[in-house]
Amino acid sequence: MIVSSNPPTISVVLPAYNAAAFIGRALDSVLAQTVRPDEIIVVDDGSTDGTADLVEQRHPLVTVLRQPNGGPGAARNRGVRKAVSDWIALLDADDVWLPEKLERQIAFARDAGVGIVHCSLLETRIAPDRVGFADLWRQNCIVNSSVLVRRAAWESVGGCDEDTALISVEDYNLWLRIAYSGWDIVTCREELVAYMCEAGHLTSSYERYARAEIANVERVAERLKLDSAIVNEKRLRTLDTQGKLLLYHRCAAPARQMLIQSLLSRPSASRVGWWILSWLPRPMLELRRALRERSLAPLLSRETGREQFGQRSG
Questions:
Q1: Opening angle at CA 103, ends 185 and 52, nearest 5
Q2: Nearest in space to 45 (alpha carbons), one of 63, 79, 71, 73
């Protein structure tokens, strides 16, 4: 392990699109850090609600860059090109950091082989202490607003892929490429980010997200020249997962499209069942959900009782 003796410098890069209603909350959380970053860069990605003007008026120390709408990947690339620090702290406009976020992560940044330091969300996601390509290929366990990324790692893979088909998963695409290139990704096991997800914002569009997940598999496979067998398994797993999620959110037509693709790729009784479910009228789906929740209620009640008993007796 090679350890740097120089204190790390940190630039915060925050892309924003029509974020006037909540970007102040994100910036306040940056300014409340126990270890202040060296600079804060907001990239206004073609907003029409006065986001850039608001930031300039209320936060004169923040650098504001303006560009035509190109998506968060393009905005992050623009911000990183402008940044002067060795480390880039990523933050989405609708998320917030806890005050100790940067302070806790800095300790991991001294190892010269580390390309990304991320931390757990308040909504816990499981990640190993060291996240490898295989871990990420199985499932994304890194959330953008928790990431501190070494500038050298970012530049070594060319930054974010700006393909608009990847919007909402362009960060996952980046983690995969950085991991594949050999950089270490370490997990800071603390809950230091609050994921807010404003209604109507990028991550709330289920159909677009599902299609982006499929596009990401194909894009990463093409760029990294991955073996077709592991690519096909990942694509099949993604079709199954996203098809079921779309059906859960009652996006029936796109759910059917994904479920039929997985069924034709590898037929099974389970896939036939899910595809049939996608044709049921919404009232029947709602009835099915209600009956399932009713059947699970006694089990959930027992589990809650055990937890409460453990807390009382502990």
A1: 90
A2: 71
Task: Report the b/e string of 33-45 with b at 16+ CB within 10 A.
Answer: beeebebbbbbbb
**Whole-number Cα distances in Å, 262 to 218, 230, 242, 243:** 15, 15, 11, 9
19-73 pLDDT, tens digit each = 999 999 999 999 999 999 999 999 999 999 999 999 999 999 999 999 999 999 9
Residue type, 299: L
Residue pair 119/188 in contact (Cβ under 8 Å)? The answer is yes
How many angstroms separate the CA atoms of 213 and 6, rounded?
A: 39
Structure tokens belonging to residue 91: 């933050």
Cβ count near 154 (within 10 Å): 24
Listed in order, strand segments (DSSP E) in the chain are 10-16, 39-45, 63-67, 87-90, 95-97, 114-121, 148-150, 184-195
Q: Tokens 């816990």 map to which residue?
A: 124
